[in-house]
Amino acid sequence: MALALGIDVGTSGLRAVVVATDRRLRVQCCHEYSQGEAAAPPDWPRLWQTGLRAVLVAVPRELRPQIGAIAVAGTSGTVMLCDGAGMPLTAPLFYNDGRAQAEAKALTALAPAGSPVLSATSSLAKLLWWRQHLPAEIWQQGQYFLHQADWIGAQLHGHLGISDYHNALKLGYDVGALRYPAWMVSLGLDALLPQVIAPGDAISLITPTMARQFGLPRDCQVCAGTTDSIAAFLASGAYTPGEAVTSLGSTLVLKLLSQQRVDDSPFGIYSHRLGDQWLVGGASNAGGAALRHFFSDEQLHHLSQRIRPDIPSSLDYYPLMQPGERFPINDPALSPRLTPRPERDVDFLHGLLESLARIEALGYERLQTLGASPLQRVYTAGGGARNQAWTAIRQRIMGCPVSAAAQTEAAYGAALLALKTLQ
Ligand code: ADP
């Protein structure tokens, strides 16, 4: 049994990746939630269950008996309330659901300043929202509060009430002390909270029924999962302090592997635990959304080939789509700066890419000033990763090697997490 399976549960479908012990990708498969299935209002847990079965079946039959470990990555902050049998009592609340404003505000009286629970989208605020708003007879049946990845994992190993400390960060779990903090006791929610273990640690063998149905080995180990964005980081191959991954999507997201933990709520910086290291992250509102506002992807591709990355542009922009920035500059009123626009599009794009590279460099500087390990190398993910001119500009400005991440699939990162139990 030399293979590990990673599963990523996304918003449009599920992906599965099989890796060998040499980390090489053997197979990847996906399942998209079909339009018919997704008719409003979608029964998400059923779609996830159907998707899980579909990706397991899509793994070639001859490989399945060799799968020794499985881990699941789910969307951070997508949560479920289930009865004693693991049946959802109400529709899941999704990662971006911000209805728990009042609950997040009430938590400021208990949680330390800067705690990730102090946001309307935090798992804890959502749980409190359910207590406040669900009919009493539904709330009283609740026995397990789970994250998406916990629940999908439980479909495989059959044990409810277990989570990992990546998913549990926004639930209030203290990842430094590895326990729920004392201030959470007064909330009276203890009975619902999952037991939290390290991502990738073995939870239990796969259930005999699942093993039989899908031709998986009886001693296939199901491991604690992680969040989709940490799985994507793991996929990049970064593993020593100072290695970082920048995601150049609609926004700029920075993650730096560090020996020291850094948390700074005004800048929206917080740290995930990765074994005995820390994954320090920050996100800027600037990014590819501004590029897309002015140029199509095709234009970006062609114009970028005409940029001379070694020659500095004299332009200094701050490409935001609306006022307000948190990281690396904390200024809720910061105005977008997108003028003057030169005559030639290629010059304008050069200025935009260089300005975004300066924001990225300032971001890493900020993380280091606050105590993170010195930046050594940057891997890149997201739509901008393939832009070679931009890569060269970023390398010049940040003064360290910059390259595209070899892998960016969260399912691949989840498979690497599972692989640890086989080594
Ligand atoms: P998200 O998932 O955040 O929407 P993606 O990772 O899919 O983002 O990346 C999309 C972004 O990538 C868009 O904002 C687009 O402008 C940008 N993009 C696409 N192609 C290029 C390119 N060749 N150079 C720079 N940026 C690009």
From TrEMBL:
It catalyses: D-ribulose + ATP = D-ribulose 5-phosphate + ADP + H(+). It is an enzyme of class 2 (transferase). InterPro entries: ATPase_NBD, Carb_kinase_FGGY, FGGY_C, FGGY_N. Its EC number is 2.7.1.47. GO terms for molecular function: ATP binding; D-ribulokinase activity; D-xylulokinase activity. SUPFAM superfamilies: Actin-like ATPase domain (SSF53067). Keywords: ATP-binding, Kinase, Nucleotide-binding, Transferase. Residues 247-419 form the Carbohydrate kinase FGGY C-terminal domain. Residues 4-234 form the Carbohydrate kinase FGGY N-terminal domain. Pfam families: FGGY_C, FGGY_N. It comes from the Bacteria. PANTHER family: D-RIBULOSE KINASE, SUGAR KINASE. Belongs to the FGGY kinase family. This is D-ribulose kinase.
